[in-house]
From TrEMBL:
GO terms for molecular function: fatty acid elongase activity. Residues 401-480 form the Beta-ketoacyl-[acyl-carrier-protein] synthase III C-terminal domain. Its EC number is 2.3.1.-. Residues 96-384 form the FAE domain. It comes from Panicum virgatum. This is 3-ketoacyl-CoA synthase. Belongs to the thiolase-like superfamily. Chalcone/stilbene synthases family. The active site is at 239, 318, 402, 406, 435, 439. InterPro entries: 3-ktacl-CoA_syn (IPR012392), ACP_syn_III_C (IPR013747), FAE1_typ3_polyketide_synth (IPR013601), Thiolase-like (IPR016039). SUPFAM superfamilies: Thiolase-like (SSF53901).
Amino acid sequence: MNGGTAPSAAAAAATPPHRRLPDFLQSVNLKYVKLGYHYLITHLLTLMLLPLMAVILLEAGRTDPDDLRQLWLHLQYNLVSVLVLSAVLVFGATVYVLTRPRPVYLVDFACYKPPAHLQVRFEEFMRHSKLCGFSEDALEFQRKILERSGLSEETYVPEAMHALPPQPTMANARAEAETVMFGALDNLFKATGVKPKDVGVLVVNCSLFNPTPSLSAMIVNKYKLRGNIRSFNLGGMGCSAGVIAIDLARDMLQVHRNTYAVVVSTENITQNWYFGNRKSMLIPNCLFRVGGAAVLLSNRGADRRRAKYSLKHVVRTHKGADDKAFNCVYQEQDGEGKTGVSLSKDLMAIAGGALKTNITTLGPLVLPVSEQLLFFATLVVKKLFNAKVKPYIPDFKLAFEHFCIHAGGRAVIDELEKNLQLSPAHVEASRMTLHRFGNTSSSSIWYELAYMEAKGRVRRGHRIWQIAFGSGFKCNSAVWHALRNVKPSPNSPWDDCIDRYPVELVDGFPTHKAAQQ
């Protein structure tokens, strides 16, 4: 036996190494095969039409001039048919022009940057928390969450939370809302030159602070907007409400011609800080920070030249019919009667399910045919042959150049990076926004887009995917198309720090702090 196996082992050892490609070369070959397949499918129609066009041109070259003359005479004698056909074409073109969706342009947007004195250091955060009466166990839990959150020590909390003791009054909550919303709107109107009186639609979203008069009424009063403005105030819809607000504004712009719509997305921290000891309700204290954004949309054709983006798609997914999904982000009182927002342990699994449903709808709208064919083929094999085939995950990198993933926390970004098979470069804007500004709720996707603009990465023709998750449970997507090489807006929140980014993070820490740990 040993004598029989020795030669074969020796032969295997003597096999030339070049017969087997290294793993990295195999992956490179697979990549180029896939790119070749994608190119072939994308241009398949063109490749099929080229021979047909060649045949038509050859036949046209052989046509006798007498035949063309006879055709002209035939049309002259059938004038009624020609007129009817022309009328049908004109009618069809008119119906198409009148019923097609009007393009919606994003003229510009502005993100609020709080003053430096509102920044909160980790040491200050923990000292204030201790003085607020949290238990030792709750303090230690907050410290661990904070240090591994991916947030820097430059994020902002409202003025009321810097006071000792904290002052979560209605007056302070109003002051926070006014400072954030008016700060963003002042920058927006200044950058665009649009007069507040020209705004026909106003949509404001803030989940946890809904006073009377409403936030939208506060804006109408501040800027003296016109009396017939269509104003809306969205509350309780979580971190994905910014995309919902964009969708509502788009619908309004389909109905009302030649006007502007302003969308304001923010969250209020002052009255929503949790002062109890339940761990599931302490996480928002560590992640949520002050921020807000104002967006100017237009359906005016004249604004296309100066607009940054056009809105292509909005896809909304609501999983509220499922009890687990409905309860996974829930505002309630703990056993001591202290109000806060509780986050379920099932949150990431529910977010993954909502994402799957959302991209199932979004995929056919944005993915190239090559990816749709691969996805469909995998589905057919699995259904018809009951084969144990791994579900094919479409390559959304072929559909988008940029990804604005809601900066809800490290876990959210990690999960989407893994599930969508993205590279660190694709989630850089999300991680850096979380690091610099924290979780600013529904406005975080605009800080991310501002980051890409500040880096000079958005070029004409690029496609941007904004995706956000929110209570209910919801997963919403917005797709934008860059109309030009986009420069950062004046007073960008990244103006004074973009040169320091990206920073390298290890387990949520900048590399120099990770080494100390």
